[in-house]
Specification:
The complex is a heterodimer. Chain A folds into two domains: 72 residues, Arc Repressor Mutant, subunit A, CATH 1.10.10; 89 residues, Glutaredoxin (3-Layer(aba) Sandwich), CATH 3.40.30. The two termini of chain A are 21 Å apart. A four-stranded mixed sheet of chain A has the order 2-1-3-4, with helices on one face. The radius of gyration of chain A is 18 Å and the shape is globular. By secondary structure, chain A is of the alpha+beta class. Chain A is built from eight helices and four strands. Helices cover 49% and strands 10% of the residues of chain A. Chain B is of the alpha/beta class. Chain B folds into five domains: 118 residues, Glutaredoxin, CATH 3.40.30; 204 residues, NADH-ubiquinone oxidoreductase 51kDa subunit (Rossmann fold), CATH 3.40.50.11540; 91 residues, Ubiquitin-like (UB roll) (Roll); 90 residues, Up-down Bundle (de novo design (two linked rop proteins)), CATH 1.20.1440.230; 56 residues, Alpha-Beta Plaits (2-Layer Sandwich). Chain B contains 25 helices and 21 strands. In chain B, the strands form seven sheets. Chain B has a five-stranded mixed sheet with strand order 14-13-17-15-16, sandwiched between helices. In chain B, strands 2-1-3-4 form a four-stranded mixed sheet, with helices on one face. In chain B, helix 3 packs across helix 4, helix 7 crosses helix 14 and helix 8 crosses helix 11. The longest helix of chain B is centred in the last third of the chain and has 18 residues. Chain B is globular. The model of chain B has no long low-confidence stretch (mean pLDDT 93). Classes of the chains: A alpha+beta, B alpha/beta. The interface between A and B is large, with 41 and 54 residues.
């Protein structure tokens, strides 16, 4: 992930620098069929889809902004809200459900102090999502933290992993 | 991997195959660490690293490129695909002896190197042990004994990152034979004759589907692989793509030749990053070898494959929705006809098949339709890969002949219930599927038998449940899934799934009414009959089947106010275990409802009538004396 893009484009001047988006559009081609890959790449860069960028993409692809907005809101992968630095995904596939993943979900929400459907912590450090099956069913229940899969896991282990990440972040900030 | 020349004819492919076989046989020992999603999550990358450094420590020369015959080192090490038995991972296999090591930790690397690689003896404690005896090789394991591997035969043995390994096992020979020995019509005829039916779940004849597309005249046609394996509890397509990606590519290329297409798309879920990475590598290697791209094997046929990543929408598993998504639109289904065979991707004739279907094709072309028909049953030939998960001893991927009974899968291969509790049900086919119960243990698993009891193969997820699983809660779980995933196009599906979810939530929260059952049934049938696509048509299945087999459980929630499985929190009560309570009184202080009373240093009690089930007492207790049950 391009750290610099996040720093410059998620602040108060969000969306004013379109050069990276232009590069992305150039890479995939300015056609409607490239819309989903373009949005995926934009989200990789910015961690979400800023509104200004959606309208920019619409203009570049010569399609109505409503169409772009329609696609961006249709797919679960896209987020119109900024996400946290660390992404925690709890798999909610059948096997994980049967092996009682609810205790893990409760523990994470409690640890991150998230309630009422809020997904991202106030300090934008963590985003917690309950996602559809990630295909690690034989290792249920499973949680993915920043791309790493934790299989046959427990609430305690996940909370410990979150503690570790927080410690590492603090150590990094102190340096 | 060293680059190699483009192959210009079938004989050059044969030559490469011979070279690959000779190179592999020159390697006295192959160490294969499972590189499937499951084992990687259990820590196989660290195991691979530890093995590599142990080999280095003992100065064992390792062949960097297994296909480099000039390298005198006789040991190779690398990732294999998923052998299926995820439960016992990380798995390490040592060929050619085929020692099958389970639960391998980085600390075991030293012993594996000294005892097996250098000493030629198995490390006894790492062999699979079922409690009474240990099993040295893969084929000895009870988990594999009753399986028949066709699609997964090479999965877990070939290195997915090296096309030459696949070629050494007859890879791309079917494509060569089709291009140089068969007309497109003959390919379609062979696939039709084999009786192969779509492994995505609906079970339509693959050969007939190809035939419809073949006869349409068009300047452009497409082959699309549906790898949007969205059913929760299913991961067989993922494992095929990760473990043997070339089998899929070869099948698609053969389909392209058969229908007259020069372009193919694989639509993969974004949730499968490893599969996407392996497919990209495989495509680039196949293009380099002249087995994909322009003028395949020096002949006139060209075929390009591109990958499209999904963006998280279950409905995109429906073929018309999938096509819309590739075109860059919202993935919403449209009415059929026209079928994709006539008007598919960008309005052109298109064949859409599932991963496992394509992975069967090369085997059929190589071995013939009759060979394929020797597996399974008359109406459903071949094998089927199932993802066996849930409360069963052995979880993982299994491949069995079509028509194997439910009981054999759960008890023989699955090893029965892991919790020691009683078997309750198997959920098959995910959110579109149904529950099979004890009375179905003799039911053969095939398209038609399952349909006869209101279930479906779906993509092949089999989730086993023991008696502690509440069936009303399972119905609610699936309904919440389909409700979220309904694309919203059809009113009946959009509103109906929401209303059913509301009712089911009400029942599991202890607020159900007797008339809810009739209302649920009516809604279920209306949504089933009035929706456009498979998602809506099958969304009520979990409700219909649980109402049919577990109506008592619904009634127990509504009328008796109990959850017989003891799962639903709303029916549980908090209580204090006398022996554990030290009488500190903290719980009573924390209780916002003043429901706890007692004397200091004596066990406290909870008044169930006042308790609001907030759990503050359980959180406060330092002695784990508060239980919910």
């Amino acid at each position: 992930m391009a750290q610099s893009a996040v720093l410059t484009d998620s602040g108060p001047k969000a969306g004013r620098n379109f050069s990276r988006v232009q590069e992305i559009i150039k890479d995939y081609g300015a056609t409607e069929s490239a819309l989903i890959p373009i949005l995926q790449k934009v989200q990789d860069e910015y961690r979400y889809l800023p509104e200004e960028i959606l309208t920019f993409v619409a203009t570049a692809l010569d399609i109505p902004p409503a169409t772009v907005y329609g696609v961006a809101t249709f797919y679960a992968q896209f987020s119109l809200e900024p996400k946290g630095k660390h992404i925690i995904k709890c798999c909610d596939g059948t096997a994980c459900h049967v092996r009682k993943n609810q205790t893990i979900i409760n523990a994470i929400e409690q640890r991150l102090n998230l309630s009422d459907g809020r997904q991202t912590t106030d300090d934008h450090r963590f985003t917690f999502e309950i996602v559809s099956c990630i295909g690690a069913c034989a290792l249920a229940p499973a949680v993915v933290i920043d791309g790493r899969v934790y299989g046959q896991t427990t609430p305690e282990r996940i909370v410990a992993a979150i503690d570790e990440i927080e410690e590492a972040d603090k150590a990094e900030a102190a340096q | 991997m060293t680059p190699f020349a483009k192959l210009n004819s079938p004989s050059e492919l044969d030559a490469l195959k011979r070279k690959a076989i000779s190179a592999i046989s020159g390697c006295a020992t192959r160490v294969l660490v499972c590189g499937g999603t499951g084992c990687m999550a259990s820590g196989s990358p660290k195991v691979l690293e530890a093995l590599q450094s142990a080999l280095e420590k003992h100065s064992v020369p390792v062949r960097a490129d297994i296909m480099n015959e000039e390298d005198e080192a006789a040991i190779s090490i690398g990732y294999s695909g998923c052998p299926g038995y995820c439960q016992v991972g990380p798995i390490v296999r040592i060929l050619p002896a085929d020692y099958f090591y389970t639960h391998v930790k980085p600390e075991d690397a030293e012993e594996i190197v000294t005892q097996t690689v250098l000493g030629g003896q198995p490390v006894q404690r790492l062999l699979f042990n079922d409690g009474s005896e240990s099993y040295a090789t893969r084929d000895d394991l009870p988990f594999y004994k009753d399986q028949v591997n066709v699609v997964l035969a090479d999965c877990g043995v070939v290195e997915p990152g090296d096309i030459r390994d696949y070629i050494s096992r007859d890879g791309y020979r079917a494509l060569a034979e089709a291009l140089y020995g068969l007309t497109p019509e003959a390919v379609v005829a062979e696939v039709t004759e084999s009786g192969l039916r779509g492994r995505g779940g609906a079970g339509f004849s693959t050969g007939r589907k190809w035939g419809f597309t073949q006869v349409v005249k068009s300047d452009k046609k497409y082959v699309v692989c549906n790898a949007d394996e969205g059913d929760p509890g299913a991961f067989m397509d993922e494992s095929i793509m990760e473990g043997n990606p070339h089998a899929l590519l070869e099948g698609m290329a053969i389909a392209g030749y058969a229908i007259g297409a020069d372009e193919g798309y694989i639509y993969v879920r974004a949730e499968y990053p490893l599969a996407i990475e392996r497919l990209r590598t495989a495509i680039s290697q196949a293009e380099q070898a002249g087995l994909l791209g322009d003028r395949i094997l020096g002949g006139p046929f060209s075929f390009h494959i591109r990958i499209k990543e999904g963006a998280g929408a279950f409905v995109c598993g429906e073929e018309t929705a999938l096509i819309s998504s590739i075109e860059g639109q919202r993935g919403m289904p449209r009415p059929k006809p026209p079928f994709p065979a006539n008007s598919g991707l960008w309005g052109k004739p298109t064949v859409v098949n599932n991963v496992e279907t394509f992975a069967n094709v090369s085997k059929i072309i190589l071995n013939g339709a009759e060979w394929f028909r020797s597996f399974g049953i008359e109406s459903s030939p071949g094998t089927k890969v199932f993802a066996l998960t849930g409360d069963v001893v052995n979880t993982g991927l299994i491949e069995v002949p079509m028509g194997t009974t439910v009981g054999d899968v759960v008890f023989k291969i699955g090893g029965g219930i892991r919790t020691g509790k009683a078997f309750k049900a198997v959920q098959i086919g995910g959110p579109s599927g149904a529950c099979l119960t004890e009375e179905h243990l003799d039911l053969p698993l095939d398209y038609d038998s399952l349909r006869s009891v209101g279930a479906m193969v779906g993509s092949g997820g089999l989730v086993v449940m023991d008696e502690s699983t509440c069936m009303v809660e399972i119905a609610r779980f699936f309904m919440s899934f389909t409700q979220k995933e309904s694309c919203g196009k059809c009113v009946l599906c959009r509103e109906g799934t929401r209303r059913m979810l509301d009712i089911l939530t009400r029942i599991v929260s202890g607020r159900g009414k007797v008339e809810d059952i009739d209302l649920l049934e009516e809604l279920a049938l209306t949504v089933r009959d009035g929706s456009l696509c498979g998602l809506g048509k099958s969304a009520p299945n979990p409700v219909i089947s649980t109402l049919k087999h577990f109506r008592d459980e619904y009634l127990a929630h509504i009328v008796d106010g109990v959850c017989p499985a003891g799962e639903c929190d709303a029916f549980k009560t908090y209580s204090i275990i006398e022996e554990k309570c030290r009488g500190c009184g903290l719980c009573a202080k924390k209780c916002p409802a003043d429901a706890i009373s007692g004397e200091i240093k004596k066990p406290y009690v909870i008044n169930a009538d006042l308790c609001i089930k907030c759990g503050a007492c359980a959180d406060a207790c330092k002695f784990e004396a508060v239980t919910l049950g």
